[in-house]
Design goal:
With 219 residues, the protein is of the alpha/beta class. The chain contains 11 helices and 6 strands. It has a 6-stranded parallel sheet, with helices on both faces. Helix 8 (160-170) crosses helix 11 and helix 9 crosses helix 10. Residues 3-121 form the Response regulatory domain. Residues 151-216 form the HTH luxR-type domain. It comes from Streptomyces lannensis.
Length: 219
């Protein structure tokens, strides 16, 4: 069973998320909170596997609440999905830097939410399409302060060339641009990227970008 904490300042949103989570009998709502300040004290007495975190709340916002979670709970123990209507570049980056494992829009379908939870709880990551675009377009050169060590270990299986390709993919470059940069063919780039995704467990390039950033490997 996956124990989940819902954090959102709107009663109807929390009720709606509860209803969506009932689609999967393996998901159990351990509690719901309306204030970011309540999150860490709650987790001290009620450990959960996953926190579904809103961004804009009274007290402290979801980014700061995630930072505080990470001070006491590593990413591989208590996972966090930021669930919000806001997909702005700065929010996406701030949430991931704070230690979030995923970023989904509140407009996702119940099936997409359940699938995203399963992916994150299984050690993967989840990013909405808009969040992926923001992440690729506005990455910075500084590594995130919270590195997911479990993900970082997966990258040890990559060859040096696969790692080069992964870093360039995370920079937002396409196959043709990477091929020109590395003096190889686009087909070779695609092959390296597919092999890298298989080795680290990423289902697509967007998730590969998320994994790379959270592992602290972004250039």
């Amino acid at each position: 069973m996956t124990r989940i904490l819902i954090v959102d300042d709107q009663d109807d949103i929390r009720a709606g998320i509860r209803a969506m989570l009932r689609l999967d009998p393996g998901l159990v709502v351990a509690g719901d909170l309306s204030d970011g300040l309540q999150v860490v004290p709650f987790l001290r007495d009620h450990p959960v596997d996953l926190v579904l975190m809103d961004i804009r709340m009274p007290g402290i916002d979801g980014v700061e609440a995630t930072r505080r979670i990470r001070e006491e709970h590593p990413p591989e123990k208590t996972r966090v999905i930021v669930l919000t209507t806001f997909d702005q570049d700065d929010i996406v980056l701030a949430a991931l830097r704070a230690g979030a494992n995923g970023f989904l829009s509140k407009t996702v379908s119940p099936a997409e939410l359940v699938a995203g939870i399963a992916e994150v709880v299984g050690g993967g990551g989840a990013l909405s399409a808009a969040a992926t675009a923001a992440l690729i377009g506005h990455m910075t050169h500084s590594p995130p302060p919270v590195i997911d060590r479990e993900l970082l270990r997966r990258f040890d299986a990559l060859t040096p060339r696969e790692r080069d390709v992964v870093v360039l993919v995370a920079s937002g470059l396409g196959n043709d641009e990477i091929a020109a940069r590395l003096s190889v063919s686009p087909f070779t780039v695609k092959t390296h990227a597919v092999r890298a995704m298989t080795k680290v467990g990423a289902r697509d390039r967007a998730q590969l970008v998320s994994f790379t950033f959270r592992a602290g490997l972004y250039p």
